[in-house]
UniProtKB/TrEMBL annotation:
<keyword id="KW-0408">Iron</keyword>
<keyword id="KW-0326">Glycosidase</keyword>
<dbReference type="InterPro" id="IPR005760">
    <property type="entry name" value="A/G_AdeGlyc_MutY"/>
</dbReference>
<dbReference type="GO" id="GO:0006298">
    <property type="term" value="P:mismatch repair"/>
</dbReference>
<feature type="domain" description="HhH-GPD">
    <location>
        <begin position="62"/>
        <end position="213"/>
    </location>
</feature>
<dbReference type="Pfam" id="PF14815">
    <property type="entry name" value="NUDIX_4"/>
</dbReference>
<dbReference type="InterPro" id="IPR044298">
    <property type="entry name" value="MIG/MutY"/>
</dbReference>
<keyword id="KW-0227">DNA damage</keyword>
<keyword id="KW-0234">DNA repair</keyword>
<dbReference type="GO" id="GO:0032357">
    <property type="term" value="F:oxidized purine DNA binding"/>
</dbReference>
<keyword id="KW-0411">Iron-sulfur</keyword>
<dbReference type="InterPro" id="IPR015797">
    <property type="entry name" value="NUDIX_hydrolase-like_dom_sf"/>
</dbReference>
<dbReference type="GO" id="GO:0046872">
    <property type="term" value="F:metal ion binding"/>
</dbReference>
<keyword id="KW-0378">Hydrolase</keyword>
<comment type="function">
    <text>Adenine glycosylase active on G-A mispairs. MutY also corrects error-prone DNA synthesis past GO lesions which are due to the oxidatively damaged form of guanine: 7,8-dihydro-8-oxoguanine (8-oxo-dGTP).</text>
</comment>
<dbReference type="Pfam" id="PF00730">
    <property type="entry name" value="HhH-GPD"/>
</dbReference>
<dbReference type="InterPro" id="IPR003265">
    <property type="entry name" value="HhH-GPD_domain"/>
</dbReference>
Amino acid sequence: MTQIESNVTEKKQKLIFDIPMWPQEKIERFRETLLSWYDLEKRELPWRKNNDPYRIWVSEIMLQQTRVDTVIPYYLNFMKTFPTIKGLADANEDVLLKAWEGLGYYSRVRNMQTAAQQIMENYDGKMPVDPKEIIKLKGIGPYTAGAIASMAFGLPEPAVDGNVMRVLSRLFEIDADIAKPGNRKIFEGIMRELIDPYKPGDFNQAFMDLGSSICTPKNYHPESSPIKEFNQSYLKGTWDKFPVKSKKKKAKPVYYVGAIIKNSTGAFLLEKRPMQGLLANMWTFPLIEEELVIQETGIAIGTLTQLKDEELTEKVMKNVMLELGSKYGIRPTLMEAPFEEVQHIFSHLKWFVAVYYGQIRVEEPINIPENCYWVEPSDFDQYVFPGPQTKMWQSYLSKFKK
DNA sequence: CATGCGTGGAT
DNA sequence: TATCCAAGCAT
C-alpha cells in the first residue's frame, strides 16, 4: 500500500451500522464535556455511595422500568433487610416478596434470589467480574451486565437502556425504532466507540442522568443541553423527529367478580395465586372470571354484572354462588351485588373487578382448597398483596367501615 | 422476535 | 379519562 492510499483510508469515515462515527478528536472532546457536566450535576443517590457490585446490582434491578423516586425507599429497606448476597440467597421467599410488594414486576426479585444462589455456588459468593459471566446470572441481561461491569469494575462496557437510545438517536439522527429489541445493538456499537475508557461507569451514568433530566421524552429543550454542540438533530433542527418509537399495544380488558367472604370469626378468605405468571405467589380475594356478553351480531356489550339489570344481576349471583361452591367449597350469603367496580391497569391487561360481599353462616361445613386461607384483617400485613387486592380491600373498607 | 410481566406519576 | 411512560429480561 502506498503512502497516498494509506492517507485516503485514514480519512475515510468509520461507519457503525451505517451511522457515521466522529473522528477521535471529537470523541475525546465529547467525553470531556459530558463528564465535566456529570461531575457538577450528578445526583446523590443511595447506590452511588460506593462501587460495591451488590449494591449496584440491586439498584439496577429495581430501576428496571421503574422511576428513581419510587425505588429509593424500597432500596434502603431492601439493603437493610438483605445486606449481603448470602443474605439474599438464603432469604425466605415470602419475606423477599414482601420487600418488593408494590414495586411491580415481581419476577425481578425471584430471579435476583436465583442469581444470588448462582453466585454462592459458582462464584465463591462474589459477583463475577467478566461481563460474559455476569450476564449468565438470572435476571441480568445486556443492560444490567454492562451497568455492573462499568460501574462496579470500571470496564468499558456499554449499558444501553432507554435513556441511552434516546440520547444517541438525537445525537446522531438515528431513525431505528428503539422499541424493537434488535435495534439495541446499533446503540451498543456506538457506545463502544464513545465510552470513556478511564471512567466508563461515570460515562454510562452521565447518559442516564442526562436522559432523565434534560434529554427527556417530553418537554425536551436541546438548547439547554451541555452537549448541544455535538447534537446533530439540534444543529439541524430535526430533534422533534427522534427517537423513533413504535407504540405499545393497548391493555386487553378482563372481567372478574371479586368475592370478599367473611366467616363467623371475622376472617376473610384469601387465595394464593399460582407460582408462575401474573402476580405469582401473591394473595387475593377469590376472583371469578366473567365472560363477555356477546350479541347475535357478534358485538360484545359488556359483562352481565355491568349491564346493571336486576334479573341479570341475579343470574350473575347464581353463577358466582355456583363457582364459590365448586371451586372454594363455600356457600356464603351474598350481601351486596356488587357494591363497587374496581379497576386496575397492568402493562398488558386491564382488570374490571365487580366486588361482591358475602358471609359464611356458623353452622356451615367448610372445605376450602389448599391454596386458600381464612385470614383476619390484623394479619393482612403478613401476606403479600398486589395492587388489585389492595384496591378491593380499600373498596370494602370505604363501604362498610365508615 | 413478540409477548408477558406492575406500578404510580405526568400531561 | 386515556395515554405514555421509567435505568429490561425471560421465554
